[in-house]
Amino acid sequence: SIRDNYECNIAYYTEKMKQKQMQDRLLENRFESAIKNKEFVAYFQPKYDVKTERITGAESLVRWINPDGSMVMPGDFIPLYEKDGLIVKLDEYIFRYVCEFQRELMKKGQELIPISVNLSRTSIHHSDIVERYMKIVEENGIPFSCVPVELTETATLNNVMIRDFTEKLVNAGFALHMDDFGSGYSSLITLSELPFNTLKIDKSLVDCIHQQKGRMVVQQVIILAHGLGMKVVAEGVETADQLELLKEMECDNIQGFYYSRPLPKAEFVKKSEEN
Ligand code: C2E
Ligand code: MG
Ligand code: MG
Ligand code: MG
């Protein structure tokens, strides 16, 4: 009957919710030991210059490698850690990981390319974050410019704190990239008011450029960003067609599976040496 069916569904969803809650508690309980055992690592996805087709930068993306070697993707734990606040510690851990990596490369005599780190909006509310990050850069003896900070556009919404925060970052010498532009609440005024030097066009916009109207939107975003003195990175570029169109639109940099997936350290080093 309908009633039985209904109760059956409720039971089903209650069970699903319970499972999700248990999964979340497990992810939270395992966090500290995962940090201690260095189970979190960064992968590196190269960003290519559209004109020269060479690597001009990279983005660090966290991966959780379990002791059995299986990998957990950020989508499975970042949203949870953003809610419970653990993300602040994880972001700082990855930031340190990237700074130490840059120091290794510098010691090997390699020319450093900027490797950006993602900073969650949760971190913005911790007043000493900028000082802590500055200290990590200084301890590693690397230039501030080699670890740009990516903040999502939603993180910049309507927030007085964000102005102080971004200005402090930029005054310290960090480059600031606006991440996922066009995916959520794009506020055009924040683009002109906050000191971002790079705009990253979200994959969802890039996916529309084969349509005339979608193309128009991307073209105008690029013109706007350039007009405001920003560089443009297109995210999630997967095809030669997309690359060709973005080239015509004078997009500066490309990040996407077309050129490269995010790579583990050793593979990234190899690829950048071939560069
Ligand atoms: P994001 O910062 O926008 O990073 C880009 C995401 O798009 C990455 O997913 C990357 O693997 C994926 N991607 C790049 N090119 C392509 C493509 O051509 N096709 C497709 N389908 N995907 C592409 P990933 O590594 O799963 O990370 C997802 C999100 O998790 C990131 O989005 C970022 O918001 C968050 N995240 C990752 N690492 C960190 C971190 O260390 N801290 C914080 N706070 N967030 C992080
Ligand atoms: Mg990012
Ligand atoms: Mg992004
Ligand atoms: Mg994203």
Secondary-structure blueprint:
Layout: H1 2-29, H2 31-36, E1 40-49, E2 55-65, E3 71-72, H3 78-84, H4 86-107, E4 115-118, H5 129-140, E5 149-152, H6 160-172, E6 176-181, H7 188-193, E7 198-201, H8 203-206, H9 212-227, E8 231-235, H10 240-248, E9 253-255, H11 265-274
Parallel strand pairs: 2-4, 4-5, 5-6, 6-7, 7-8, 8-9
Antiparallel strand pairs: 1-2, 1-9, 2-3
Domain EAL: 24-275
Protein name: Stage 0 sporulation protein A homolog
Organism: Blautia wexlerae
Concise account of the structure shown:
The protein has 275 residues and is α/β, with parallel strands linked by helices. It has helices at residues 2-29, 31-36, 78-84, 86-107, 129-140, 160-172, 188-193, 203-206, 212-227, 240-248, 265-274, and strands at 40-49, 55-65, 71-72, 115-118, 149-152, 176-181, 198-201, 231-235, 253-255. The chain contains 11 helices and 9 strands.
